[in-house]
Design goal:
Layout lengths: L1 H13 L23 H8 L10 H7 L4 H5 L2 E2 L5 H6 L4 E2 L1 E2 L20 E2 L24 H7 L7 H15 L19 E3 L5 E5 L22 E3 L6 E3 L13 E3 L5 E5 L1 H4 L7 E3 L4 E5 L11 E3 L4 E5 L11 E3 L4 E5 L11 E3 L5 E4 L2 H4 L6 E3 L4 E5 L11 E3 L4 E5 L11 E3 L4 E5 L11 E3 L4 E5 L11 E3 L4 E3 L13 E3 L17 H9 L3 H4 L6 E3 L1
Parallel strand pairs: 6-7, 7-9, 8-10, 9-11, 10-12, 11-13, 12-14, 13-15, 14-16, 15-17, 16-18, 17-19, 18-20, 19-21, 20-22, 21-23, 22-24, 23-25, 24-26, 25-27, 26-28, 27-29, 29-30
Antiparallel strand pairs: 1-3, 2-4, 5-6
């Protein structure tokens, strides 16, 4: 994961309905009229409700005239305000047995059976439906019911047919033994339980170009592990979730850039989930839907539309990887104090705030800290206690401090501190022999760049507009160097050997010494 993030980071671093209601309609003045029972019949025949004296204004204001109301057999007793005022008990609207719905087409509740009718009350005060008879049905929930309806799960025969007839033809670059495997022989990259149901499918980077709805036979209550990352899956992910997915332990569909839909709600039902990776997709959802996944160790929603707050993850005390970069997740990195096993934290953007001091007493097992262009502040001293730290990226933050404290992190390999308030002499970097990426551009560091002369592992150096000095000859032994930016610092018009080649030629010659570097000529950049 670290290498994948590192590669993407370097590439980015270097390419630097509401309708207009119209005019309000004035309600007509109520017209007094005598009660005529024939009106009810006539009204029902025309599908228009009949109301008594004093209620027409309520109908106008409450917008209750609708066809479902009358087709359901609901008759409202006509009366007048004077009679209602002398009534000791409230009159009740009677409902016939063929009522199919208590909700009209606009979504507003109709007058329910057993609802008191008060002619002096505003229509808005009429209570909503509170009860239904056993024979009643609620048409308003049809859409929700159809959405949540769970179809019967696939059989083992249907799953094997899916593997052989569909998936086998879509896998590219990998040889599979599925068609030749005997009854007792294992299938490549697939595991079955005793009943022949698929429990695990591992086919990352397999060239699978398929609409995700065709993956429906794969998902059953017995499925535990899925890794279909870095393929060409597309469509809506929920189209394949025809049954409740409660047994998942690991789910990884990262890198399927055309995959979309709400992924958190369905996957969040798996309480045993330990890995949730959907990075670099068009998927969305809210991480609060994962609240029941207390055993989660890896959450990777980077480069998605997934939203939520870091605080929603605080009860997941076993988290080791929290990667929410370029997503809609917000919050304070103080939440990291709830994750004692944390190894990788990857957050970025102005919606991420906090102080590095959280790492002084917590998260001592951290390997990678990515906080690019966040609103995080603090001092480098806070991360010096992370002895296993291999990568520190606080590029474009308000973090400051002496670079010298990083000598306490001997395993450090990548250092991205550009555009920070970092000071100190770069000579201390001799204590970090594993460094391969060093970006200190636009900081306040000082010192002679000859400190890198003995580092034959360094691949990237950025010292633009720092207070460092030195000569290009310092990089003679840096045979793996692919990127160098020393623009704006002093000493580079010196030629250490008047009779030798110019420094820039000398540098290029050494850059292209071995064959691996020669293949990367087009990515090599030298800025002086």
């Amino acid at each position: 994961m670290a290498e994948e993030y590192n590669e993407e980071y370097n590439e980015e671093y270097h390419e630097e309905y509401q309708e207009d209601p119209g005019e309000p309609v004035e309600p007509e003045e109520p017209v007094e009229q005598e009660y005529d029972p024939s009106l009810d019949v006539e009204a029902n025949e025309t599908n228009e409700p009949s109301y008594g004296q004093g209620n027409e204004e309520q109908v106008e204001e409450g917008n209750t005239g609708n066809s479902e109301y009358d087709e359901g057999g609901v008759d409202v007793l006509e009366t007048n305000n004077e009679d209602l005022g002398n009534t000791e008990e409230p009159l009740v609207a009677e409902t016939t047995d063929n009522v199919d719905s208590y909700e009209n087409e606009s979504g507003s509740p109709d007058i329910a059976k057993g609802t008191p009718v008060d002619g002096n009350a505003d229509f808005d005060e009429v209570p909503a439906v509170t009860e239904k008879t056993d024979g009643d049905s609620d048409d308003s929930d049809d859409d929700d019911d159809s959405k949540d309806e769970q179809l019967p799960g696939p059989t083992n025969e249907e799953q094997k047919k899916f593997l052989l007839s569909v998936l086998y033809k879509k896998v590219k670059g990998i040889k599979l033994n599925w068609k030749n495997a005997g009854d007792d022989e294992p299938w490549d990259y697939v595991e079955f339980d005793e009943e022949g149901m698929i429990t695990s499918l591992l086919l990352p980077k397999s060239g699978i170009d398929l609409d995700f709805k065709h993956m429906a036979p794969l998902f059953s209550e017995f499925l535990q592990v899925v890794d279909l990352s870095s393929n060409k899956l597309k469509g809506f992910i929920t189209d394949a979730f025809n049954v409740e997915i409660k047994g998942l332990i690991s789910f990884n569909v990262s890198g399927n850039k055309k995959l979309k839909g709400d992924v958190c709600e369905d996957i969040g039902k798996s309480k045993k989930l330990t890995e949730f990776s959907v990075a670099r997709t068009k998927l969305f959802g809210n991480i609060s839907d994962l609240a029941d996944c207390k055993e989660l160790t890896i959450i990777n929603v980077g480069n998605t539309e997934v939203s939520g707050k870091l605080k929603d993850l605080e009860e997941m005390v076993q988290l080791t990887h929290v990667c929410c970069d370029f997503s809609q997740v917000t919050g304070d990195i103080i939440s990291a104090s709830k994750w004692p096993e944390l190894k990788v934290i990857y957050l970025n953007g102005k919606q991420i705030v906090g102080d590095l001091s959280v790492f002084r007493k917590h998260c001592r097992k951290l390997n990678e800290i990515w906080l690019t262009k966040s609103n995080v502040l603090g001092d480098l001293t806070s991360v010096s206690k992370c002895k296993e730290l291999t990568l520190l990226d606080i590029y474009g933050t308000q973090v400051g401090g002496e670079i010298t404290v990083l000598k306490e992190c001997p395993m450090l390999q990548s250092l991205y501190l550009s555009y920070c308030f970092v000071t100190g002499d770069i000579a201390c970097l001799k204590e970090n022999p594993e460094l391969t990426h060093i970006l200190l551009d636009y900081t306040y560091v000082t010192g002679d760049i000859s400190v890198f002369s003995s580092n034959d592992k360094v691949q990237e150096i950025g010292l633009a507009y720092t207070q460092c000095v030195g000569s290009l000859a310092s990089f003679e032994e840096c045979v793996h160097l692919k990127f160098l930016n020393v623009y704006g610092i002093r000493g580079f018009d010196e030629n250490p050997d008047p009779k030798g080649p110019k420094p820039i030629k000398l540098l290029k010659k050494n850059l292209y010494k071995n064959k691996k570097v020669q293949k990367l000529k087009h990515t090599t950049k030298i800025t002086i």
